[in-house]
């Protein structure tokens, strides 16, 4: 994941995931080890990508979150949606 996952990076991420799904991949582990910030657009792209993965029998799991990024997922209650390891 990029250091700042916001509007600029979201479109690129969406296309990458879409291409992987079209290529037959449906499960992903997103490493947030270098990500310091995520905005609502970044969250939205991850959620929509998750939905597409689930439709094809896959999932998205998250790892390596720092406290600031984890707090955003907690505040938006996305910790109930994603498996965070």
Beta percentage is: 15-25%
- Overall pLDDT: 95
Strand order of the largest sheet: 2-4-5
Number of strands: 5
Helix content: 40-55%
Cα separation of the termini: 15 Å
Number of helices: 3
Describe the biggest sheet? 3 strands, parallel
Shape descriptor: globular
Query: Structural class of the helices, strands and pairings?
Result: alpha/beta
* Helix-strand string: EHEEHEHE
Radius of gyration: 12 Å
Low-confidence segments, given as residue ranges, are none
Architecture blueprint of SSEs:
Blueprint: E1 4-5, H1 7-22, E2 27-31, E3 37-38, H2 40-55, E4 59-63, H3 67-75, E5 83-84
Please tell me about this protein's structure:
The chain is built from three helices and five strands; from the N terminus they run βαββαβαβ. Helix 1 runs parallel beside helix 2. The strands form two sheets. The chain has a three-stranded parallel β-sheet with strand order 2-4-5, covered by helices on one side. A two-stranded parallel sheet has the order 1-3. The mean pLDDT is 95. By secondary structure, the chain is α/β, with parallel strands linked by helices. It has helices at residues 7-22, 40-55, 67-75; strands at residues 4-5, 27-31, 37-38, 59-63, 83-84. Helix 3 (67-75) links the parallel strand 4 (59-63) and strand 5 (83-84).
Outline of this structure?
InterPro entries: Anti-sigma_ant, STAS_dom, STAS_dom_sf. Residues 1-85 form the STAS domain. By secondary structure, the protein is of the alpha/beta class.
Characteristics:
two-stranded parallel ribbon; globular; three-stranded parallel β-sheet; alpha/beta
């Amino acid at each position: 994941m990029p250091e700042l996952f916001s509007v600029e990076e979201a479109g690129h991420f969406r296309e990458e995931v879409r291409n992987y799904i079209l290529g037959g991949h449906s499960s992903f582990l997103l490493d947030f080890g270098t990500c310091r910030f995520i905005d609502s657009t970044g969250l939205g792209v991850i959620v929509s990508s998750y939905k597409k993965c689930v439709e094809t029998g896959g999932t998205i799991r998250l790892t390596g979150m720092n406290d600031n990024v984890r707090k955003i997922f907690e505040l938006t209650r996305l910790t109930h949606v994603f498996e965070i390891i």
